[in-house]
């Protein structure tokens, strides 16, 4: 896939600070891991420990809340990068222990489920974190790989399908539709259903359809609940 340079890489460089955690929020597949990899390439960082929260061994260490275990895990590395950080129980508290007890450590934490990550790192890392929010590609970024004529030609498609990095580089609309459906079914609904404890994905799909029909109008939560067969409080959530 063609790599489109991300402007946020410059902000990431500025935020990396010893004793602080840079938390990267963003929807799935917007390029969070790619951003980190390109940052590491550009900076030529030595002493990087890059781990994934899906790894059960990594979780055993980073869930320990033990100063000695966390120090042993980090070792002499100067930069700790944790991908899929939301998989790690009480990750916020464990990161607090790391930055408080390991001098000059730099930490980056990111994850596919920004909902879970935001919930876990909020209070424990107060005053110890910087937040970087990553969105799909901006036009100023896309303009690095296309000229004005191409931008005008792609405008309608971009308004319909958006600017996820992979979507931008695809040339076939059917592939774009398939890709976006996969993101919705596998990621978006899963995150929302897990976060709010909603049991029926079909209700969420129907809610999105009803909201789409009411763009530009006053929305009645009670009426939405009536049409969905759900309580007003559930619709609010």
Automatic annotation (TrEMBL):
The membrane spanning regions, by residue number, are none
Q: Which Gene3D superfamilies match?
A: P-loop containing nucleotide triphosphate hydrolases
The family database entries (Pfam families) matched by this protein are listed as:
AAA_14
Domain AAA+ ATPase, first and last residues per copy: 18-141
InterPro entries for the chain? AAA+_ATPase (IPR003593), AAA_14 (IPR041682), P-loop_NTPase (IPR027417)
Q: What is this protein called?
A: AAA+ ATPase domain-containing protein
